[in-house]
Write a structure and sequence with these properties.
- The chain is α/β, with parallel strands linked by helices.
- It has a 7-stranded parallel sheet, with helices on both faces. Strands 7-10 form a two-stranded parallel sheet. It has a two-stranded parallel ribbon with strand order 8-13.
- The N and C termini lie far apart (40 Å).
């Protein structure tokens, strides 16, 4: 895959060791001749990738430390495209560490946005489906759906507000300073390496990893509010295919655009998700016995998260824009996503 100019692209990624960053880098090396540099606090998801000749630079460190600012600016100057993927994307942290969530997701990433403006580099920014807030009716549209969140006292919305403000700032830089940008909004991307079992042990993992851990170690799944809330789950392989198209930017079609990247066909309740996951884990020999004994338990949101929690009932993306603009559509059903994710943990020898 080439850029619109036909040249091999140079990509700089912060948060490269994370779920999205590591899978995206793997897809880049498998499907393109692009070169990558990266920054993150850890490198455990990059062991094989770091051996690639196209991995030109990696620095391990904390983005808050001033000593790494020169390295980050140097990599932005080197690259064609910057992807600031470093961020907090776990609801448990929005509640426990709201200031940290804001400082990382907004303040640190704003520095990268401004560096791209100053150096004339293209920016691809990870927004979130959470910017759509309390919308509950029908598919969510990138350019017309309202972005309405809950009260200030419900601190889980600090993540959504941080991302939404960044979206608006990036758009304004595009208007006033000619920043070339694309924004993408992930809808419940799922797959291997989403979270660790250490996260799940502490109760801070996202839903699928947390469920797998709880089925294996706690006898079942706790359904917050009975598991009636609905989400649309997206296979990470489908998602990175979409990102590659955004980065390649054929004929400049992604410039200045916001894209939902999700799978509306995979919309289901959290209870339905748990039931399907248990069925799939029963088919995996290493997990079968424990999955067969798993039970579903209800708990109120207040008891599980505390009074600062708030949530939307449903979240369904429209993907017609990215389909028509870049020719992408998702293909992996929820059942297959859960099976492949559970198999990853089975092969990792977690028991």
């Amino acid at each position: 895959m080439k850029s619109k100019s036909g040249k091999s692209l140079k990509i700089f990624i912060t948060g490269i060791n994370g779920f999205i960053g590591s899978h995206l880098t793997e897809a880049i090396f498998t499907q393109t001749d692009w070169r990558v540099s990266g920054f993150d606090m850890r490198s455990d998801n990059l062991d094989e990738l770091l051996r690639s000749d196209n991995f030109v630079s990696f620095k391990q460190g904390d983005i808050f430390d001033k000593e790494y600012r020169a390295y980050i600016k140097k990599q932005i100057k080197w690259c064609d495209v910057a992807l600031p993927l470093a961020g907090i994307a776990k609801p448990a942290y929005y509640l426990k560490k709201p200031l940290w969530t804001f400082e990382l997701d907004f303040e640190q990433n704003l520095k990268i946005v401004r560096a791209c403006v100053d150096l004339g580099k293209r920016l691809i920014f990870p927004s979130t489906s959470e910017v759509y807030g309390m919308n509950d009716g029908g598919e969510l549209l990138e350019d017309t759906s309202p972005l309405t969140v809950g009260p200030v006292s419900k601190t889980r919305w600090i993540y959504s507000c941080s991302k939404q403000m960044m979206d608006r700032i990036i758009f304004a830089y595009g208007q006033e300073r000619d920043l070339r940008f694309s924004i993408f909004r992930p809808f419940n991307w799922t797959g291997p390496r989403l979270d660790t079992f250490e996260d799940a042990k502490e109760g801070t993992a996202r839903v699928v990893t947390q469920m797998i851990y709880d089925i294996l170690n706690r006898g079942g799944v706790t359904l917050v509010g009975g598991g009636s809330h609905r989400r649309s789950f997206t296979w990470i392989g489908d998602a990175t295919d979409a990102l590659l198209r955004v980065i390649a930017n054929d004929s400049g079609r992604a410039d200045g655009e916001i894209f939902n990247i999700g799978n509306p066909a995979n919309n289901c309740s959290i209870k339905e998700l748990a039931e399907t996951l248990i069925d799939e884990m029963k088919r995996i020999p290493a997990f079968s016995e424990r999955a067969s004994r798993a039970v579903l338990k209800d708990m109120s949101a207040g008891d599980f998260y505390g009074s600062a929690y708030d949530d939307m009932r449903d979240r369904v993306p429209s993907v017609s824009k990215i389909e028509h603009t870049l020719g992408w559509s998702p293909s992996t059903p929820t059942k297959d996503i859960l099976r492949m994710t559970a198999e990853y943990y089975a092969h990792s020898g977690v028991l």
